[in-house]
Design brief:
Elements (H helix, E strand, L loop, with lengths): L4 H12 L2 H28 L4 H14 L2 H15 L8 H27 L2 H9 L4 H31 L11 H12 L2 H39 L1
Main location: membrane
Protein name: Amino acid ABC transporter permease
InterPro entries: AA_ABC_transptr_permease_3TM, ArtM/GltK/GlnP/TcyL/YhdX-like, MetI-like, MetI-like_sf
Length: 227
């Protein structure tokens, strides 16, 4: 068995220069997923007529169909029914697919977070003449954010890893570059190992930042408990 360690290291600068496109797709997908998940959770929580059953189907589809198939359906399949979508580029298709899929999962995270906040707190806010929006903004949402940070952070890391599927529809990213290098040199192990290590490093950095954010958000609550 031959393993060319020097060749693997030489691939690092070639692959890492596509990191910005990975972060762009992953971060934008995550932000959109948060917005989608939040509004989905409101509709589910209040069981809004007409929208609720439609949303249940969308969430079931997003959870039940593999991510790669969802990307293919949107990018290659949807233009057959909606010709205007044929102008959609590959990056947009990946962002929409990842946003909808993870928004469906995050809707349950937000719904659980809302349920975890005691109803009596909301009622207490109204009893001291706070408006519904004031109660939501100053009392309920800060607690919801605190509860959702750990699972939402995990979804961000998963989305970043899922961006490696983008090369299947022509996006030139880190995975596409690694595949090209492997095809030229026939050193598949070195190329895929290097791109895997880069994704691993990104996950470690994001996990560290998530821990720091959790610590910062939890700080006021820990002080309160010590009193």
């Amino acid at each position: 068995m031959k393993f060319d360690f020097e060749y693997m290291l030489s691939l690092f600068p070639e692959i890492i220069k596509f990191l910005p496109i990975v972060l762009y797709i992953g971060t934008l997908s995550f932000l959109l997923a948060i917005v989608i998940g939040f509004f989905f959770s409101i509709i589910i929580k209040n069981k809004v007529k007409l929208l609720y059953p439609i949303l249940k189907v969308i969430i079931s589809y997003s959870r039940g169909v593999p991510t790669l198939i969802q990307i293919f359906i949107l990018y290659f399949g949807a233009p057959q029914i909606f010709p205007s979508l044929s102008s959609m580029n590959a990056i947009t298709a990946v962002i929409i697919s990842l946003s909808l899929r993870n928004g469906a999962y995050l809707s349950e995270v937000f719904r659980s977070a809302f349920l975890a906040v005691d109803k009596e707190q909301y009622e207490a806010c109204l009893s001291v003449n706070m408006t519904k929006w004031q109660a939501l903004r100053t009392v309920i949402l800060p607690q919801v954010v605190r509860i959702t940070i750990p699972p939402a952070g995990n979804y961000y890391i998963m989305i970043i890893k899922d961006t490696s599927l983008a090369f299947t529809i022509g996006v030139i990213d880190m995975m596409a570059r690694a595949k090209l290098e492997a095809a030229v040199s026939y050193k598949f192990l070195e190329a895929y190992l290097m791109v895997g290590l880069i994704y691993w490093m990104i996950s470690i950095v994001l996990s560290f930042l998530q821990s720091e954010l959790e610590y910062t958000v939890e700080k006021p609550y820990r002080k309160e408990e010590l009193k």
